[in-house]
Amino acid sequence: MTESRQYERINTVYTALYCSYCGVRAAKIKNLSKSGAALVFKDEIDAATGDNATIHFYSRDTGTLVAKADCHVVRVFSDDGNMAIGIHFDKENKGVDVVMDFLSSHSKPLG
Prior knowledge:
By secondary structure, the protein is mainly beta. Helix content is 12%, strand content 50%. The chain has one helix at 94-106, and strands at 10-11, 15-20, 23-32, 36-40, 52-59, 64-79, 82-89. Strand 3 (23-32) and strand 4 (36-40) form a beta hairpin. The protein is globular and about 35 Å long.
């Protein structure tokens, strides 16, 4: 089965804060594209398809907020035994472009 996506996914080693009506939780950004991301949580969270949230992207390297972006949950799944969600960024999220530019200039090859 061939996957057809509008934007290429980038694997990352970064984390983000997932902010929703249930509170704020840290998450590992497993992969990221201009249209969405997969976030993996250490512990279970209260998330369901359709939930709205804001993702805050922080850089440990610079100790600063890189950008934030509004999104909604499109999928809840398990990733190696950890809870994970797929999110889709809302339209006109300039914060996502800022994060993608940051990753391009700061990321080291994974592997």
